[in-house]
Amino acid sequence: MPHRVPPILTPATARMLLDGKTRLSLDLGLTETEVMHTDVGVSLGKGETIRYDILGRMAERDDSAYFLRGGSVFQVAVAGRHFYKLLPTERAPTLEIDGIRMHRTSGTTPDRDAESKLAALGLEGGTVLDTCMGLGYTAVEAARRGAETVVTIELEPAVLRVALMNPWSAPLFDDDRIYKILGDSYTLADSLPPSFFDYVVHDPPRHRQAGHLYGLDFHRKIHRLLKPGGSLFHYTGAPRSRYRGVNLHSGVASRLNEAGFTDIQYHEDVMGLTAASR
Questions:
Q1: Is the pLDDT of residue 239 over 60?
Q2: Which residues have C-beta within 8 Å of that of residue 171, sequence separation ≥ 6?
Q3: Which of 59, 114, 123, 208 has the fewest CB atoms within 10 Å around its CB?
C-alpha cells in the first residue's frame, strides 16, 4: 500500500482557513484539497475536523509543520538526544536539528538542491549509495533519474520518524528500488560490497557534528565501494568555509586525491566536489 501521511498544516495554511479558503494544500504544496467550513471548524476530509479556536492559536505560532489526528494538532517534531523538526520552505521542507537547518535554503529549496547536486554528478541509472539520508530527497531524486538500486543510510531513528511524516518523503517508502539502512555510514561502509556502486553521494552534516565523515579513512572506504571509473559527489560548503582554521574545501580535495580519486572538480552552485574512482 502507498505510504500515507495525515493532513499537514502550517501557520500559513491556518491563516488561509481562517480567511475562508476552501481549496488549499494539506501536504506542503504537493497537491490541493477541497475543504468544507462548518459552524465550529473546518472539515478536512476522512473524518478530520479542526476547530476554529485551534486554527487561531496555530496561526500565531512560529513557522513549523503540524499534523492533525483525532481533532488534535501535533508538531511534526521528535524530542530525544536532539530536537528534530520539519520546517516548511516554499517547496520541500527542510529538517532542523537543534535549530540548525540540514539543507541549503538560501536561494534554493531542499528538493531543487538535491536535483542540482545529482546533475553535477551526472547521475543516470546505475547503483547508488547515499551516505546521509536525512529526509531522503537525494535517494528519491536518484530513483527518479533511473537508478536501478539506491542504498541510503541514516544514523538517527528520530530523523526517519520525521521523514515518515513528511509528504515530500513519501517516495522514499513507496519505491522498492530504495533500500533504507539505519546506522553510521562510517561503520557500515566496511560491510558493503567492494566495487559495487556506480555513484556515491556524500552530503554529510557540518564538520563539527560529523568530522569522521570528512577524513581520509572514510574517503578510502568510499573509494573501495565504487566501481573503477565510478563517480562521487562530496558536499563541502563554500571554498573559504573554515572549521577551527581548517579550509574544508581544499582539505577534502587533497584527501580524495590521496584516497585514490582523480578528476576532482569543485562546483560552486552546489558547494561540493565531484571526483572519479581510479
A1: no
A2: 136, 140, 143, 144, 178
A3: 208
Find cell 513549523 and name the residue.
64
Q: What is the pLDDT of residue 64?
A: 93
pLDDT of residue 256: 94
Record the cell numbers describing residue 7, joined without a space: 493532513
Determine the residue type at 132: C
Instruction: Report if pTM > 0.90.
Output: yes
pLDDT at 63 over 90: no
CA atoms within 13 A on the CB side of 104: 20
Q: Cell 551516505: give the residue.
A: 131
Q: What is the 3-state secondary structure (H, E, C) of 148-194?
A: CEEEEEECCHHHHHHHHCCHHHHHHHHCCCEEEEECCHHHHHHHCCC
Question: If residue 199 lies in a helix (H) or strand (E), which one and from where to where?
Answer: strand 197-202
**Domains along the chain with CATH numbers:** 8-75 (no CATH), 103-277 (3.40.50.150)
> What pLDDT score does 246 carry?
55
CA-closest candidate to residue 64, choices 80, 84, 82: 84
* Residue tagged 537508478 (cell numbers): 147
pLDDT in tens, 81-108: 899 999 999 999 999 999 999 999 989 9
CB 59 within 8 A of CB 14: yes
CA distances from 236 to 71, 117, 206, 247 (A): 44, 12, 9, 10
Residue of 152, 153, 146 lying closest to 178 (CA atoms): 152
